[in-house]
Design brief:
single chain, 158 residues, alpha+beta, 3-stranded antiparallel sheet, two-stranded parallel sheet, 3 helices, 25% helix, 16% strand
């Protein structure tokens, strides 16, 4: 909740206070990725007049249920929105999910650190991923091999 102003100076957006830090080694700028989430911008596609659009983080504020829900996108936010609606009793037939044909996802169970996992399992999975990468003959083959060793998951549309 702070804005970096350069030269070690920050402005707290919540309180309005300013403060300065001494940089001991270096400044790491993580803003280069330019991550945006649905709540940060309007939809990038046209919306018909009168159609309500609700960013996923505002779903809990809905007080009158809709007849249908449409979730656009298969990233983490889209997946979380679908799961949240289903967990709150929205019947699957009232939910439409617009997503790419077959997105690939990293299986989070395979990237958890110690002590959440055994070191032996991490080493074995690393070796399997390395082998899949080294043996792959094309990008599609690489993704199939990584899926076969459990490093990637694929959501297949039905």
């Amino acid at each position: 909740m702070a804005e970096y102003e350069g030269a070690g100076r920050f402005h707290l957006t919540t309180s309005g206070d300013d403060y300065e830090v001494t940089v001991r080694r270096k400044i790491v700028d993580t803003t280069y990725q330019g991550v945006t989430v649905p709540a940060m911008r309007p939809p990038e596609f046209p919306i018909a007049t009168g159609v309500p659009v609700v960013p996923p983080n505002e779903l809990p504020a809905i007080r009158e249920p809709y007849d249908r829900y449409v979730v656009v996108g298969a990233g983490k936010t889209g997946i979380d929105a679908c799961l949240w609606l289903l967990e709150r009793g929205i019947a699957p037939e009232r939910l439409t999910w617009i997503m790419p044909r077959a997105p690939w996802l990293i299986d989070r169970a395979t990237v958890q650190p110690l002590p959440l996992r055994r070191a032996e399992d991490i080493a074995e999975e690393y070796a399997a991923k390395h082998d899949a990468i080294m043996r792959a003959e094309s990008l599609p083959d690489l993704f199939d091999r990584l899926a076969a060793v459990g490093a990637l998951l694929r959501i297949l549309a039905g």
